[in-house]
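User: quick one
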Amino acid sequence: MARSAPLLSVENLSIELPGVADRTHAVAGVSFSVAPGEILCIVGESGSGKSVMSLAIMGLLSRGLSVEGGKILFEGQDLLTMPPKARRDLAGRRIAMVFQEPIASLNPFYRVGEQVAEVFRLHTDMSKAEIRERVLELFSEVLLPEPELIYQRYPHQLSGGQCQRVMIAMALALEPAVLIADEPTTALDVTTQAQILDLIRDLRDRHGTAVVFITHDFGVVEEIADRVAVMQSGHLVEEGTKERIMNAPAHPYTRALLAAVPRLAPREVQANDKPPFLVAENLQKRWPERRIPALEDVSLSIRPGETIGLVGESGSGKSTLARAIIRLGTVDGGSIRLNGEDLVGKEGASLRALRRHIQMVFQDPYSALDPRQKIGSALTEGPMACGVPRREAEERVRDLISAVGLQPSALDRFPHEFSGGQRQRICIARALALRPDLLIADEALSALDVTMQAQVLELLGEMQARFGFAMLFITHDLRIASSLCDRICVMQRGRIIEEAEPRLLFAHSGHPYTQALLQAIPGADR
Amino acid sequence: MGRRFWLKRLLRTLITLWAVVTFTFVVLRTSGDPVVALLSPDALPAEIEQFRQKWNLDRSLFEQYIAYMLNLLSGDFGHSYQDGRAVTAIIAERLPNTLQLGAVAYLWALAIGIPAGILAALKRDSLLDRGVMTFAVVGFALPNYFLGILMILFFSFHLRWLPSAGTGSALHLIMPGLTLGFYVAGTLARFTRSAMLEVLERPYMRTIQAKGTPFLYGVLRHALPNAAIPIVTILGLNLGALVGGTVVVEAVFGWPGIGRLLVQTVASRDLAVVQGLVLMMAAFMVLANLLADLTYSLIDPRIRVSK
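Assistant: Done. Structure below.
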């Protein structure tokens, strides 16, 4: 099919970075275009300049960034030379945007219905009743349950997926010609992601919207793109149809990105007949005022050196279970025995002594490190609190920091000097400094882009081979779980509904929920 | 926030007030003898004895304390050692003057501090921003009495525009009001600026721009209500600072309010009056903070409306 004339084209766009940055330009001489009804995916790692570029199209560049040269043509008019008022009039009406963090992107002060209604108030002269009617229609269109109820809700009362639907409803309110979606599904779990992708595709089909979709995940590209543009360090390195880029990538960077995409490839299970060292039995937990239990009769046993995957959507009870095991949270009933000792009744010093055996790596490496504490101090703190002499702790930490692929000089630096991937390495080193028997990784890869994910995944495997700890790996991504785990437990509504080796689980899953999770994997049909 | 929260709050308030009363009681009575301050140096031993008996000063500290607390619980704040009038009557006579002064100070602090903070945040790093921040630093670095004296020198002695002390007209209110509010205005400007800067960086402000909203509309309708949440807390705390400020400012400008009354009665060791004033000021501060917390929870939907 021949492409129709482009609706939005970016020509030779350059955006300068402030002097202190590690490169001179966030975006350097980038050109691309998108036609009505077309979905263009812009792919690249974090820091490749894709978000900055999309913000430039919307006229939302943050302080310190400025367009150095180039054009952004919309229906033939250059947005960059347009008077501010005319440009404002286009924003929200003709060009709309959906952002990465759905909950944070809505104003906590107002009801979500009012926030969508505001778009109509600003750009049309519809009556109050008409606007309300239209907002409710939009909410149904983006498949929000009970639109009347949602209209009255504040953002903090909705889930991430619901907030993203509200954001999409807001973006589509005035049927814009162009929709820019900046990683709109990165913060969501796989099933919600699949629904949002469906929604965007469907809206494109019905309204002929041109979509610029920014992502780092080729699985998502596979699902949604017509054409793909790949960005690296501010440059557009390759552009073409989805088929061409996916099947015959020309640029080495594209090939590297494609290679990093996790595949649904169940690993060979290692024989393990050691007796389990951690046994959780019949765990129960309820949150007050919620119908669905957080944990319902959950039992789990972990053998030394084994890796268990815990998968399920957000809210299924994965993190509650992990927090119960490390006793960061309490349970209402059941027992957790670590080497025969029950953790549930333990308090104070005896609990601290047992906790040493279980360590955790958290989702967000940016907030998991104290910004005012040097890495060395953060790493030695744990062992020293458990009675390891300073000299020995320091030696152990020096060894670990090189094991996770960082220079020993890293110990004298602060967290802000490291990238997200490096920080997650530091967090892993911090957890391993206590020589734990069990490492709990709670969505430890979700905040990283694909290349980082692949590296950290490899690192975890290496460390496990070297130190022999068992791992409880929590994820909503079955692709990652399959490549890493000996056993996978699928959780839904506080229960473990299925538990099996990856290969068996994928081949013969009897449970519809597991099948739905498998279906939702981006690029699963490939 | 349920009933439990407010009950706990009430209990804490009562404990605070009790601690304040007890502390001032002990300190006042162990740090000097009212007889020395109130009676003339050549008073006869019989006169002194009679004075002590009349005000129970001959009993042990503990007995005095129990008697005072029991009276307090029945609503009796005691009587002035100097003229025997009820403490409540003496305070009631002076309080309106202080309230008037405080209201003027607070209003001008609000009217200047908040808009200045907003403008500074919007024009970040500009000359205006630096000006506002300089004003804020001067505001809370310059002692009240010094600013008061400078003002008297300039406006009363040099320009002869304003009366240097006393009450009676709106002109009398200007200098003490400005002096008292200056500190609060500076603090408010600074906090408003940082609260606004934080809100302006939030992802939802980007969404609001992406909707095509006019700049000022976005600031007033979306940024300001969110920034108001921390500002309200500062407002409550500053109400307390204002009460403290009256002690100095009223003394400098000869303003017949409770601040000056406190200075006079401390000097003359009129214990019952001092005790009553301190209790009232403490109650006022606690109440102001309670009010701030209440407002805070009312304006923030994340606290008002549970999940």
